[in-house]
Every structure is written in C-alpha cells, then in structure tokens.
Amino acid sequence: MDTINAIGRRKASVARVYVSNGTGNIKVNGREYKEYFPLLHISAHVIAPLLELNALTTYDIKVNVSGGGYRGQSEAIRLAIARALTKINADYRPLLKIKKFLTRDARVVERKKFGKPKARKSFQFSKR
After folding, report:
1. pTM (2 d.p.)
2. Which of 59, 61, 100, 120 has an alpha carbon within 20 to 30 A of 32's alpha carbon?
3. Structural fold of domain 4-98
4. pLDDT in tens, 78-100
5. How far apart are CA 17 and CA 49, in angstroms?
C-alpha cells in the first residue's frame, strides 16, 4: 500500500493526513502527537479512530495541521484519519460511522454584527 491522504476540518482548523503501512508512529507538524497535544483528553481525539479499529500499531501517520486551537485541531485530525482509514478499507466505515468519526462538525463562530460589540451582545439600553 502506498500513501493514502485525506483532509479534515473543524472550526478554523484544517488537517491534512498521510497514512501508510508502518509501526504506529504519529507525527503532527513534525513532532510526536503526545508532544504536540500534551493534554490527555485532547490527544485521545487523535488516536480514537485507530483504537476503535484496533489498528494503533498498523499504520504510520503524518499530519499537517493549521488554524484554530488545540481542540479544533485534534478533532480535525480525528476526522481526517477516519476518512483515510475508510479509503484503505471500506469495511471500517460502519464501525467509524457508529462512533460519528466520519461526521463533520459544522459549528463555527458566529460573525460579529454591526452596531454590536460581539455577535449577539448589546450595549446597555437606556430609556432616558
């Protein structure tokens, strides 16, 4: 198998993932994923699709991610890895779909409106 690539997005983050056969190395922007995401609950997003398929030591993964914060980046990577795994083997799709790893979370920040300090917040109202 040669390299399979996929893309994942979440909020303002975009993750490009390259999956190939290997021993389970996961590099995010040239660093180990545990070093890039030091918090356990955030780094768990990255390996969740692999744990679901018991394929943690089967593939080497190289990730380029940009934009957003740590949480958005980790969830973008999760989506991209799940998409790449379904390209590799179509039998993985039902298992990943049940856990909602293939669903793009479309929630993004609401834009600021004119005449207001934020999207919905208003200045204090004075009747007189």
Report:
1. 0.91
2. 100
3. Ribosomal Protein S5; domain 2 (3.30.230)
4. 999 999 999 999 999 999 999 99
5. 13
